[in-house]
């Protein structure tokens, strides 16, 4: 058998890497017993990545928010011995856990206005893999996270000695990766379509206000959006991501609701995405998610309507990226529809074309 060609090498990026790229790089570094400092904007998924890595590596996660901890919580307290000849350490519980079992010690907010005492404790944890006389288990690893200087967050400069003990990675905002995650997490289709249309432009922007858009705050907005009365949606979304972006979402949803997905699927109505009025990416994303949402919510989709899904996927001007997006949505929300589609020769032909265009496949 011919050996599959190796995937292309990941380019070095001073601006940072996407979530999957950082995931792969940090995992290797931790396995090699190298401590890692991961920086990124608020809400891009640093804490989620720590949790994921701990699970994959079989480590107990110890989550320490440095900015919220007193230095004594990190190093323990010292009392005079019975004969007052020396000081005896009473170590913190987390250090005892890291000694007894393989753990991932996650030092979050490491550069968030921490004091020199915090940094001294972190230096001992990272460099010497101990807290006082408590040495960590050989399988324990250390991962730290912090914000970027441009985030308007309170950031303290870390000492060069401490920085030099880490492998450094920046986790960047990546709308495409966020969408794949959001599909699995059932983020509301209106918000998915909105982020899909405008990408990083709306996914993250630190406006300086208390509420601003980030991957985390959009997920919060999705939860309140799903439960709110339509009259209250704008105010609730604004509370999560700010008024400017709540208004942008509201305007976009008007476009989204113009797509009559029922006519497209039940009656085979066609959309020409090369027509001037339909070329805008915001409309294309709206159409794709409107169709996907309708299919998902339709509990009695007749077999006679299935060819119309293929017809929509074959719409003039609907590029492969949008075809994949709809198929990923269906796979995530109702894979039974894909099973039924595979019985159609026209769909199998489409799938073969897509696999030929991209090695990713359609699931």
Low-confidence spans: pLDDT under 50, at least 5 residues?
Answer: none
How many separate domains?
A: 2
What summary fits the major beta sheet? Answer: 5 strands, parallel
Counting DSSP E segments of at least 2 residues, the number of strands comes to 9
First-residue to last-residue Cα separation: 24 Å
Strand content: 5-15%
Percent range of helical residues:
40-55%
- Discrete helix count: 18
The general outline is: elongated
Specify the oligomeric state.
single chain
Order of neighbouring strands in the sheet with most strands: 2-5-8-1-9
Structural class: alpha/beta
Element string (H = helix, E = strand): HEHEHEEHEHEEEHEHHHHHHHHHHHH
Global mean pLDDT = 86
Q: What's the alpha carbon Rg, rounded to whole Å?
A: 25 Å
General description of the model:
The chain has 363 residues and is α/β, with parallel strands linked by helices. It has 2 domains: 19-171, 3-Layer(aba) Sandwich (Rossmann fold), CATH 3.40.50; 175-357, no CATH class. It contains 18 helices and 9 strands. The chain has helices spanning 19-31, 46-56, 71-75, 93-100, 116-128, 160-163, 175-184, 189-198, 200-203, 215-227, 233-241, 243-256, 261-266, 281-297, 306-313, 320-333, 335-341, 345-357, and strands spanning 36-40, 60-65, 77-80, 87-90, 103-108, 130-131, 134-135, 141-146, 167-171. The strands form 3 sheets. It has a 5-stranded parallel sheet with strand order 2-5-8-1-9, sandwiched between helices. A two-stranded antiparallel ribbon has the order 3-4. The chain is elongated.
